[in-house]
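EI: anyone free to look at a 151-residue chain?
SC: sure, send it
EI:
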Amino acid sequence: GREAFSVPGNHGAVPIVREPIFRITSLRIERDVLVTTNLRLGLEIANPNAFPLEMRSISYDFYGEGKLWASEEDAGAGARADAVPAKGRIERALRFTMNFADADRRLFDLVAKLRTVRYRLAGRAEVGTGLEAIPSFALGFDLEGACPVAE
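SC: here you go
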């Protein structure tokens, strides 16, 4: 299960906070230009709490077929905050560029032929609760799976 915590010494006055849940929803080709391709990774963030959360920053490393594809610096993921409604979800787009000149040939073929790519997305997020009694907190995430490449 997901981690939950409350403020110690506060007997029921402060709600329990559950960590948001991250899930990869898609990997899409946005644009092909000569030897590079712009890709968009869909990241769903679900909020299991009865109050909104604010995703203040996300930093990450994204791997395809075991090769590093992108990191926060490539996509500027920490540039803005997103509100995740109570018991709701949002999708955030992480954009990056794949340079086929530098890419592993197998990975290039999987992307070019719109095949399924094994991925790993590992990183940290800073989350705000908007509740005076509960400060923002950082959490790590590490997602692995497979996702078809789409146009």
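EI: Confidence is low (pLDDT under 50) at residues 74-78.
SC: 👍
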